[in-house]
């Protein structure tokens, strides 16, 4: 590590370090876990010009990077503890940029009760690459998997669907977004870490690639068929206002970071009270049946034909 790198870490990242990070002064971080707990790990990488633009606000880039991983933790029914951060930094991103990047992380560390545990920085002649690994914990054996859905389960989603995908279209100038709500939902996901999936859900995941495509992943892992009632899909007032022509975008667009889960019918009351307690809306949108894949049913119970199912990574 060069002197410049020490200075860089000292100024922007040491203030973010918390319990377990050992002041970023040791060779590794140290995490204690109670004997009845399991560690939950997830990692995510953002690359300049692929996942964000060089002139996107640094503060929202860092917050989105952290929040996407927090959402994965929530999807497993886990409580997030801390994170590791790796940065490959080109010269064009100056100290001012990283000051704002670090401010964003500080804000979200408070909001979601997580700390920086460690990481690595290098310089690069390539694009800026940001990689974050989250560590969370869950009671042993209680992690919520995609594979646990059972026949007869009800299907639920938190929050609203489609805002982020519409927000991206608004940022591209394809849609009006007078109050900026949709663009904000695209830039800053709301990870549902406060919603206690463990113990309530048989199966769950977070929606990152679009409701229909991600429901397909859950259906495949559980070897079941998911039926979604189009009319019950929760839309924000701003999304509803965009009208019928954008409905398919809501179903198939990515970046929602809401939780999609299945649960036995008898958990419905507990799910609704957990929703009130956490201040996170949940909506019942369908059911688990025998078969495979995902169908979206219109008001007449007819299968809707979608021209695409979701975000393609490559
Ligand atoms: Mg995920």
UniProtKB/TrEMBL annotation:
Annotated organism of origin: Asaia krungthepensis NRIC 0535
The protein, known as: Thiamine-monophosphate kinase
Binding site residues for ATP:
119-120, 146, 208
One of the record's GO molecular function terms: kinase activity
Pfam families cross-referenced by the UniProt entry: AIRS, AIRS_C
What reaction(s) does this enzyme catalyze? Answer: thiamine phosphate + ATP = thiamine diphosphate + ADP
Residues annotated for Mg(2+) 3 binding in this entry: 27, 72, 206
Query: HAMAP family, alphabetically?
Result: TMP_kinase (MF_02128)
**What taxonomic lineage is listed for the species of origin?**
Bacteria, Pseudomonadati, Pseudomonadota, Alphaproteobacteria, Acetobacterales
Give binding positions for Mg(2+) 4.
27, 42, 72
- According to its UniProt record, the EC number is 2.7.4.16
User: What does this chain do?
Assistant: Catalyzes the ATP-dependent phosphorylation of thiamine-monophosphate (TMP) to form thiamine-pyrophosphate (TPP), the active form of vitamin B1.
Say which domain of life the source belongs to. Bacteria
- Chain sites annotated for binding substrate: 51, 255, 311
């Amino acid at each position: 590590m060069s002197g410049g790198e020490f200075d860089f870490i000292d100024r922007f990242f040491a203030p973010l370090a918390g319990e377990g990070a050992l002041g970023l002064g040791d060779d590794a971080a140290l995490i204690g876990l109670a004997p009845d707990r399991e560690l939950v790990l997830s990692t995510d990488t953002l690359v300049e010009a692929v996942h964000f633009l060089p002139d996107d606000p640094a503060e929202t880039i860092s917050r989105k990077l952290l929040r996407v991983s927090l959402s994965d933790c929530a999807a497993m029914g886990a409580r997030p503890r801390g994170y590791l951060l790796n940065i490959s930094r080109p010269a064009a991103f100056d100290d001012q940029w990283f000051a704002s990047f670090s401010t964003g992380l500080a804000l979200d560390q408070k909001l979601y009760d997580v700390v920086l545990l460690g990481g690595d920085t290098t310089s690069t002649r390539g694009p800026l690459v940001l990689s974050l690994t989250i560590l969370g914990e869950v009671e042993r054996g209680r992690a919520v998997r995609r594979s646990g859905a059972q026949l007869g389960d009800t299907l639920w989603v938190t929050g609203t669907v489609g805002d982020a995908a519409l927000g991206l279209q608004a940022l591209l100038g394809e849609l009006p977004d007078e109050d900026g709500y949709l663009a904000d939902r695209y830039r800053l996901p709301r990870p549902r870490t406060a919603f206690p999936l463990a113990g309530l859900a048989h199966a769950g995941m977070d929606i990152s690639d679009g409701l229909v495509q991600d429901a397909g992943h859950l259906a495949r892992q559980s070897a079941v068929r998911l039926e979604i009632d189009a009319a019950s899909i929760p839309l924000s007032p701003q999304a509803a206002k965009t009208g019928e022509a954008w409905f398919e975008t809501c179903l198939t667009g990515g970046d929602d970071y809401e939780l999609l889960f299945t649960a036995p019918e008898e958990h419905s009351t507990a799910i609704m009270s957990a929703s009130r307690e956490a201040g996170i809306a949940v909506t019942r949108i369908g059911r688990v049946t025998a078969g495979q894949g995902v169908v979206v049913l219109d008001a007449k119970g007819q299968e809707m034909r979608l021209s695409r199912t979701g975000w393609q990574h490559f």
